[in-house]
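Question (not urgent): is this output format expected?
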Amino acid sequence: MKINNQIKIEHLFQRAGFGATPAQIREFGEKSPEKAFKFLLKDAGKIIPLTVMDEENEMIVRKKKLRTMLDMKGLSPDEIKEQLKEAREKITDLNFLWVKNMASGESMLREKMTLFWHGHFACRVRQPLVVQIQNNVIRKNALGKFGDLLLAISKDPAMLQFLNNQQNKKNSPNENFAREVMELFTLGRGNYTEHDIKEAARAFTGWGANLQGEFVFRANQHDDGEKIFQGKTGNFKGEDILKIILQNPQTATFISTKIYRYFVNENVDNQIVERMTKRFRSTDYDIADLMEYVFTSDWFYRPENIGTRIKSPIELLVGLQRNFGIQFEKKQSVLFIQKSLGQILFFPPNVAGWSGGKNWIDSSTLMTRMKLPEIIFKDSEIQFQPKDDGDVNTENLSKRLKQMQATINWTAFQNNFSTQNPQELLDKLDAYLLARPLSTQQKNMILSKSEGKMGIELIQNLSQSIASLPEYQLG
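Got this back:
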């Protein structure tokens, strides 16, 4: 496979974001990947908060009511039902807005990193205010120092609630939060002991959140006795534990490996990861610097790393929007696609997040993925059912949603390709939409399906054929 500059730029935009538009291919197609990444990094300097609720106003309201989703005592069954419904709707609004922001292409690198950390720091709670707060905490720190992100997420009300640290008190320590901080967020399994977990749990006693969604340190619930953690002794608090974890080289290795698997290749090159790890530690865990190293290195653009990674459902959904300028009119459509493909934002399957890789694909989801372009492009009736995963946020979606109701400006899309010749148009669409070129046999098959078609009908038919291929699932 010959790697030309356009392939490199498309590869960069796919991995560092959610794909390039035709306009971006024209703008950066002749520029080096280094210059393209500098644009992405500069653009990512904009922090666009995810805002469905006015956080300050919501906290004021909570203080007045003193009864929230965290504390339903005194509410009737109907009041509880109504509050749950309202919470689901607001989380759905957050979901829809985030997908829209990702598809817009603005601050794309930051949005992609926010999605990565959203899976890394997997969390599932039903209070929309704290969901919004957490997402914005991640967004703010997504390209900063990992130590700052780790501390911020460790003091995040949603995470403290999800991992039961609200119940972590000096007389009855709860080890759940301390365990997951080490196993899933920093060191990785096998790089700590059960004694480390117990001592870390003691250090995190008293960390919690109030009813308004604010971090609170309750000194009277904190164990201020001497602790021994990772071979060090002291009167440690939670902040001290996190600092000791960051001093352990295994943390840099664990994060670098996960970043390699997510952004480069599922099959880890240990030598490259070792170089990433050294760089990460030498910059005091500077995330932006590490990502620049990844996206501007020659090895990132090797053939084995291009078009070999299965797109996550969110990447596929947002990528379709980026590629074709799709606008979804209903938030239920966006939620339905996520549910059908197995990745719902703000609803990870468990504390370890989404497994990714080949786990995204089974016989059901592959068929759904390949039928999706036709359903969207032609606004066909939806024939498949989303998986029943027990998610109350998406109950009865299939009963309420019959069509995607998405719009595409095909004339504007067609104007990006200055030809009406079917063969030439197919070649240009192939180069734009796929990381790896189609075979002659595949091209002939697609052209035979489009025989006799012209204008908008031709480009729509060719686009649908390409986007329905298994190859389109790779990026």
